[in-house]
Design goal:
Layout: H1 3-16, E1 23-31, E2 36-44, E3 59-63, H2 72-76, H3 80-86, E4 89-93, H4 112-127, E5 137-141, H5 144-155, E6 162-166, H6 181-185, H7 192-198, H8 206-210, E7 213-219, H9 225-238, E8 243-247, H10 253-277
Parallel strand pairs: 3-4, 3-5, 5-6, 6-7, 7-8
Antiparallel strand pairs: 1-2, 2-4
Length: 283
């Protein structure tokens, strides 16, 4: 093969197969609320390693589902590529197998909403070059993590400017048979008020005043699609701006790996919009 032909072949391969140079790290993030540390996966875009202290990045928090852990997203998807593509930091904390990302009234040892929504965010801002504002933070997750992401965003509107849910269990009252859910929510009969208060479908009105960039999707073959449609319909009735989609697929990693690409694009667009609208952008 002559030199010119080899050059063009290499160039073609580079253009059709981009080099992804993101960095993936495992960090231990302490929880004062639960008196222990939990591992988390942090993915940094390639540019992060070449930047200065002045170069800072928005952050997308990705929550795993029931029975999962902090390795799920990176093990089952090509999530790291999105860090490079959209120049964002991705954080995948450990939310316990069946925590539902709430501060449990039934189990005082389970305080995962405080951990993920407050302690993890504070740790990431302290140890990485983030843009530490609500306009540069997003949170999403799948299934139990979809519920958790919306719950945390609703309860902490000053922390997150964007939120999403993928195949989210937005009405935990329809998940009473889920193993372990009663341990954190309490008995559904005796603690019905708490279950009702935490259901995202019952909190749609809060999104009216939260001003959160919102994206929700679910597979048409997913058993959770009905509750997601209900949430969507209530948001429409209230006039709450949001992105909603139903796509072919069920409660599977094939669906989630596809969906997360749309959601991170949504968040990246939200970050750019908020940056353009900030006073500094017009100074």
């Amino acid at each position: 093969m002559n030199t010119a032909r080899a050059f063009w072949l290499i160039l073609t391969l580079l253009l059709t197969n981009p080099v992804w140079a993101y960095q993936s790290r495992i960090v231990a993030i302490p929880s004062a609320a639960m008196h222990k540390s939990f591992d988390a996966t942090v993915v940094l875009p390639d540019a992060y390693g070449h930047g200065t202290d002045a170069d800072r990045y928005p952050v997308v928090y990705l929550l795993h589902g029931s029975g999962g852990d902090y390795t799920d997203w990176s093990a089952n998807t090509q999530i790291g590529r999105l860090a490079d593509r959209y120049h964002v930091i991705l954080v995948m904390p450990d939310g316990g197998h069946e925590s539902w990302y709430i501060d449990s009234p039934a189990d005082p040892r389970s305080r995962y909403e405080t951990y993920v929504g407050t302690e993890v965010v504070a740790y990431i801002d302290a140890h990485f070059r983030t843009i530490a504002t609500r306009q540069a933070r997003a949170i999403t997750g799948l299934s139990m993590g979809g519920f958790g992401a919306l719950r945390i965003a609703l309860d902490r509107p000053d922390a997150f400017g964007a939120a999403g849910s993928i195949s989210g269990a937005v009405d935990p009252r329809a998940c009473e048979d889920e193993p372990g859910i009663n341990r954190v929510f309490g008995d559904p009969a005796r603690h019905a008020a708490f279950w009702n208060s935490k259901a995202i479908v019952e909190n749609a009105r809060i999104f009216e005043r939260a001003h959160i960039a919102l994206t929700i999707d679910c597979g048409v073959d997913d058993s959770l699609v009905a509750s997601n449609r209900t949430l969507h319909e209530r948001l429409v009735e209230l006039g709450v701006p949001h992105d909603y989609a139903e796509r072919p697929g069920g409660h599977t990693w094939e669906y989630w790996a596809n969906s997360i690409q749309y959601q991170v694009l949504f968040f990246a667009t939200s970050f750019q919009h908020d940056a353009a609208e900030s006073p500094a952008a017009h100074a």
